[in-house]
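Progress against Task 2.4 (sequence-to-structure conversion) is shown through the following example record, which the project officer requested during the mid-term review.
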Amino acid sequence: MAAKKILMLVGDYVEDYEVMVPFQALQMIGHTVHAVCPDKTAGQTVRTAIHDFEGDQTYSEKPGHLFALNHDFVSVEAADYDALLVPGGRAPEYLRLNEKVLQLVRDFDQAGKPIAAVCHGAQLLAAAGILEGRECSAYPACAPEVRLAGGTFIECAVTEGHVQGNLATAPAWPAHPNWLAGFLTLLGTAITL
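C-alpha cells generated for the chain above:
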C-alpha cells in the first residue's frame, strides 16, 4: 500500500469526533493528513463541538476541545493531494461561503479523487455543485440541501456509510467504522490481519 496525502477542511465548531477520529485513524495506518482552516495557519487551533444523540428531536451540542491545525490553508491546492475529507459540525455551514474552499472541492471532484464527507460535510459538496445526479448520505437535516443540489439523498442507519463513485458519505460519527472503511477502499488502502 502506498501512503496517501489527504486534505481535511475544518473550521471552528467542527464536530469533535468527526475531525479527531479520522485525523488520527488515517495517520495510524500510514497516510498523511493535512488539517487546514481558512484564515488560520499550522499550529493554530479550531474549537470543536460534541454532537450527541440523546433522544431529542435533533442532536445536542456540547463544548469539545481545541483541535490543532498542522498545515497552512493558504498554500493548499488539490493537485498536491490524493483525497479530500470534510468533517461535519457547524463549520461547513460557513466554510461554504469561502470560494477557495468551494473551488478545492470542485477540483478534487473534477480530478476524480476520493472525497469523504460526514454529517453536515455534505453542505460543502452541495454548495460546490458536485452532487448533481449523484447519491449522498448526510445528517438528515441536510437532505433538502442534497436534493436542491440535484443529488439523491441516501437515508441510512446512523452507523452506516454510503459509497458511490468517488464519494464516501455518512450521516454522523457513529458511522466511522463503515464510512472510513469505504473511504479506505476508495483510497486503495488494504488492511490485512
